Every structure is written in structure tokens, then in C-alpha cells.
Amino acid sequence: MKSVLEIFRYTFKYKGLAGLVILFNILYVIFNLISLALFVPFLQILFNDANESIVQPICEQGVINYFIYQGQLFDYNMSVLTQSNPKEALFVACISIGVAFFGKTLFRYAAIWCQSKLRMSVVRDVRDRIFEKAMRLPISYYTDERKGDLISRMQSDVNEIEIAVVSMLEVFFREPIAIVINLSVLIYWSPELTMFSLILLPFVALIIVFIGKSLKRTAKQGQEQMGTLFSVMDESLGGIRIIKAFNAIPQVLKSFKKENLKHQKLITKAFRKRDLSSPLNEFLVTIIMLVIVWYGGVLVLDLNENSSLTGPQFLGFILVFSQLTRPISGIAKEIANLNKSSASQARINEVLDADEKIYEAENPLELDDIKTAIHYKNISFKYNQVNVLKNISFKIPVGQTVALVGESGSGKSTIADLLPRFYDVQEGQLLIDEKNIKDISITSLRSHIGIVSQESVLFNTSVKENIAFGIPTATDEEIISAAKIANAHAFILNLENGYDTNIGERGNKLSGGQKQRLSIARAILKNPSVLILDEATSALDTESEKLVQEALDKLMDNRTSLIIAHRLSTIKKANVIHVISKGEIIESGSHDELMQKKGHYFSLSTMQGINS
Question: How far is Cα 421 from Cα 482, in angstroms, rounded to an integer?
């Protein structure tokens, strides 16, 4: 029920469109009934009894009585015309039926026309919400969750919501109205036959409920498996170079086919359950119709003397009752869709309700400039109950460079990630000018920080747009100036379209050194107060490293910098070097001081061939 209410809120955000869909659907139902009810006078013309007495109807007070009177008046006029001129009456009946069918078709299309915009507007809104939430979720979320699963929720699960929008409108605002209107006409023609018919319908409803519950369970399993399948696809396509290099195509294909087979079995099972309701309903309805035909036939043949049901009315009853079963079957189908979508809605809500963890202060401070220092004060940090950092304390004075070295997994990157609040400090404090960064506006904080990481994160746009990423107001002169400082201008001019060249997905049209220099140009254009360099040159060849290091030196000039490095030759000029081991600082000092201590840093330097 909760998922239906959420879909209701999504839909009625667009009250005008939703109202038009409901109105046109109601008109469709009315004209559909009229088109069928008009067959009764048509049949009366064909089976005309010239001796039949005709009584002019009387209009009684009340809205319902008014509509009944209009129907009786039409029957009266047709009966009079039938007795005086049967052929003309037949022509009028055919024209009336044709007009009714035209109205039915017109309003059905009008409903679909409005519905198409409504459903896609809802899909757009839900995707916008998920994507916005994905952008706000902490980095830790992506450590635990797979990107493919998130993409699956934005695609497959959202598509189920699109179907549910239509199903919700029909199951609440079209089919019940169709049932009430058709049922009213049936009761008007024969209360006895109608009550007999209704006794048989609950059996269909029980079967629908049973199938719906089973379908919901299977649908959820299918959507979860789709997320796993998307993850396998994402990982395989992203690592295609390594897959080919290690001749691992058969292994990857085997893994993919295994997951794909699981998905196929689950979805096939879900389709079978969903599609079972329709043929099963048709069979049950056919049985009900046969019972009604037998019982109604008995009434018409005057085996029941109290019955006033005529032959034409009985045939009309069968026609309208067949339409009564359509909305009942429709409700069964739409409930199946809603049950299927509720599983998708639950998966979407898992993302929308995920804890963002990194929260803005109630009245955040704006960080105008960094005047004194960045202070890591007694900081400890756990990830999944595992100690990553233990009582880390050090300062980065303004304009100075602090480097972090140590083995992989020692916690260096976590220390750096705490500064832009990719993670939040759990114990201790991280201060800028003695202000806790949790009290500073996140946007203001990050506007002062530039990051150049080991993996150059570039986007499938032009060189110019990548350099100006996050700074849409940057001029061409500013972009070119940043590229020159980053030693990137020369190679950019040699590209096919210069600064307007599209660099491909993740910048795969460029070499590693070229990508890194674009990342540096991006940081230079931002002109941050604080610079974080995370293994910025570790993946480069000697020639590229030299060009990148020159660019980094220009970027770091008179700037507060935090450097993470494996190549110790790149940090010899750092003011202070902290050696990290198992989440703790075990040595601190300048390069010369640490070399004189002949401790852990000295050992690392010796292994890399650095003797002084």
C-alpha cells in the first residue's frame, strides 16, 4: 500500500494532466457503455413486435432518475419510430452506434495522449531524484554498493514505476467507474440476473490476490539479479583491456552467462506468473458467462414468471456483462503490475532513503580564506568496525607542503579524504583556522580544495570542457593559460580540433601523461587554496613524470599542499613528511631529518635508490 501511495504522489504532482487522463477515461467508459447499450433498440427493431404496447416514460426527480429517463425516452422514441418506419429506425440506430463508437475511440486516444506525457514526466522526476541522491551519497556508499546495481535501479526499476503510473490511474479511476456504470445498467435491466452474476465473481478475485503476492516476491528477486548483471557488464566493459591481455574472455563469458541465465529464469518466472492471470481470468469468466447464459435463458423463456427480461435486453445484458468482466480482468492485470512495481519502488527507496552521512551544518560558516593552518587533531577513524586511523595529529601551516608516505593500506588516502569531507571524522577534530570543518559550508570548503589523483578522472567531452569542469564561466584565455602552466598547451594544439577535441570516455583518446596534465590544468584553473596530490605521478613513465612534475611544482608554488606519494623523490622538498604505518604516524620530519634518523623512511628511501 505504501508503494501505491508513493506512485500516487508522483502522479498527482501533475494534477492537470492526471485530471485530464481521469476525465477522458471516464468519458471513454461512458461512450463504451452507450455503444453497447444501443444494440438493445437495434435488436428490438429486428425482432419488432407490432402489437407491443408503448408507454411514454415519466421523468422523476434526482440526477440518477434523469439519466434513467433519458435512456427510457430514447427507447420510447425508437419504439415509436420502429412501429411507424422500421427501416428509418434501423438507420438511426446504426448512426447512433457509430457516433458512440467514435466518441469511445476519441476519448480513449485523448486519455492515452495525456497519459504518455504524464508517465514520462514521472519517470524523469524519479530518475532526477535518484541521480541527485547518487551525487550526494558519501564515497563510502560506492565502496559497499555496485555501480551496475545503481544503474539498474535508475533504468529497470524506474521503468516499472512508469508502468505503475498507468496501472494506478486505471485501477483506481477507470476500472471501478466502469464497473459501477456497467453494473448500474445491468441492475436496471435485471436485478435478479445481476445478483446471480455477482455471486460468482469473488472466486476470480481470490485467485488474483494469490497470484499477485507470489508475483511480487519473484519480481523483487528478478530486479536484484538485474542489478548484479549490470555490475558484471560494467566491470567487464571497464576492464576489457585486462580481460584481453590475460586471455580471460572465456572466464568472463562464463561468469556473465551464469548471471544472465539466473536473470532469465527469474524474469521468465515473473512473466509467467503475471501472464497467468489473464488467460485464467478469461477461462473463469467464460465459465461464469455460460452459467449466466443458462440462467438468463431460463428467465427469458418465462420459466420464472416474475421476470420481465426480454430477449433483446438479455442479449444486451450479455454484451454489457462481457464489458463488466473487462475492467475486472483489467484490475487483475493492473494489480499484478502494481505488485511488480512495488518491488521496484522498494529498491528505489533503498537509494533515496540511504543515509547521506555527510550533513551540512544548520547555519554553516563561509570559508573566505585559510589564514593560519589545517589541523588534524587526535583523529581516529573506523570503516566497517576496522580501525583505519588511530590518533592522527599534525598541522599543515599555510603555504607549506606536508607529505604522507607508507605502505599501501596504511591510511594515507583516508587522511586526505577527510579534508574535503568525503568521509567525516569520527573521533577527534579536523580544523581550519581552528574552525571545525563540520561547521563550514561543504560547498565553501570544497571550493578551496583542488585534487589531482593517481587516476585522472576525465569526462567524455571536449578538452576545453574538461579543463573548465565546475567553472562554467571560465574564459578561453583563462583555460589556455591554465593549460600552459600545466605543460598541456602544446599537445592540445596538436589534437584534431585543438581545445574542442572530444577526448572520449574517461579520456581514453589521450596518453596517461596527457590525461594527468589536463587534470592539473583543471586544478590550476580552479586556483584552490589547498592542494591534495594523491599519487599524482606514480602511474607515469619517466618522460611524462618529468612534464607532470614540472606542472605540479608550478601548481604547488606558495600553496598549502598535502601530498601522498610512493616515489619519495617527488617529496624531498616537502616541509614535513609523515610516515604512516597501520593508521598511525610513526615518524615525522623533513627529508634530511628522516634520513639522519635511519628509521622506516630511511629504509624506504634506500629501497628506491635515494641516498640523500
Answer: 26
Question: For residue 363, which amino acid is it?
Answer: N
pLDDT band at 50 (very low <50, low <70, confident <90, very high): very low
C-alpha cell at 18: 492526471
Q: What is the mean pLDDT of residues 494-510?
A: 87
Q: What are the CA-CA distances from residue 394 to residues 374, 401, 403, 414 (Å)?
A: 8, 12, 11, 15
388/414 Cα distance (integer angstroms): 8
C-alpha cell at 488: 598541456
The amino acid occupying position 597 is: K
Record the pTM. Answer: 0.70
Q: In what order do the strands lie in the sheet with 560-564?
A: 449-453, 530-534, 560-564, 401-405, 576-581, 584-589
Q: What is the mean pLDDT of residues 563-568?
A: 83
Spatial separation of the C-alpha atoms in residues 530 and 449, rounded to whole Å: 5
525 neighbors 467 (Cβ within 8 angstroms): yes
Span 123-141, pLDDT tens digits: 889 888 888 888 888 877 7
- Residues 56-82, mean pLDDT to the nearest whole number: 56
Q: CA 377, CA 522: separation in Å to the nearest integer?
A: 31
Residue of higher predicted confidence among 186 and 79: 186
117 CA to centre of own chain = 17
pLDDT tens digits, residue range 403-459?
999 888 888 889 999 999 988 888 999 999 999 999 999 889 988 988 888 777 888
Distance CA 418, CA 425 (A): 7
Q: Rounded to an integer, what distance in angstroms lies between the CA atom of residue 129 and that of residue 589?
A: 48
Domains of the chain with CATH codes: 2-352 (1.20.1560.10)
584, 543 in Cβ contact below 8 A?
no
State how beta strands 530-534 and 427-432 pair: unpaired
User: Are the beta carbons of 331 and 171 closer than 8 angstroms?
Assistant: yes
Cα torsion at 69, 72, 76, 79 (round to 10°)? 170
CA separation for the pair 263, 229 (Å, rounded): 8
Q: Which residues on neighbouring strands pair with residue 435, listed in sequence order?
A: 432
